[in-house]
Amino acid sequence: MKRLLYVSLVVGVVLANIAQAQSSTAAEHHADRERLIGAWHLAKIDSPGPDGKSTDTAQPVGMLIYTADGHMSVQLMYPQSAAGLSNQYVLNGYEASFGSFTVDEARHTVTHHILGSNTGKSLVGRDLPRVFEFTKEGSLIIRSANPAEHWSVTWEHY
Question: Please, which of 25, 103, 108, 123 could form a disulfide with 117 given CB 3.0 to 4.6 Å?
């Protein structure tokens, strides 16, 4: 009888440790989503050229916002010297989009579901997956999950 009680106690302790480890891992991932919430200001954009080396891209000012209820908004304004810059994200030196977001904590990705953009049809209705990481200092680095896009953006919390 004592042996059965001992085995039951050991099994209970092992199961409790497993449950605690799983809860801790889930809390860490949940903490990543929580860390995204708030307003971020643009610190730096890295956009390497075709040779893989960083280019001297004119640095814009910008803000990225994630809300607790799952909405996002991003705005970037390039300096006057880049006022003519236009691509799928930027129109005449200005980038703005908004919508909702979801987080895949296991893959460290945040997907922006674009409802509106100043570039119109090129982004509206698209899902834009982004890989994210937090630095030791608390900055947020976001990269495109699209292997054809080689940029990264560093954000700092306000």
Answer: 123
Biggest CA–CA distance in the chain, Å, is 83
Reported as a single tens digit per residue, the pLDDT across 114-147 is: 999 999 989 999 999 999 999 999 999 999 999 9
Q: Which amino acid is at 42?
A: L
Please give the model's pTM, rounded to 2 decimal places: 0.78
Q: Given its phi and psi angles, is residue 26 left (phi above 0), alpha (psi -120 to 50 degrees) or beta?
A: alpha
CA–CA dist 44, 38 (Å, integer)? 18
| Type of residue found at 40 | W
Distance CA 108, CA 153 (A): 15
How many Å separate Cα 65 from the centre of its chain?
11
**73-77 long-range CB contacts below 8 Å, 24 or more apart?**
73/97, 73/98, 74/98, 74/112, 76/42
Element (H, E) at 26: helix 2-36
Backbone angles phi, psi at 33, to 5 degrees: -60, -45
What fold characterizes domain 37-157?
Answer: Lipocalin (2.40.128)
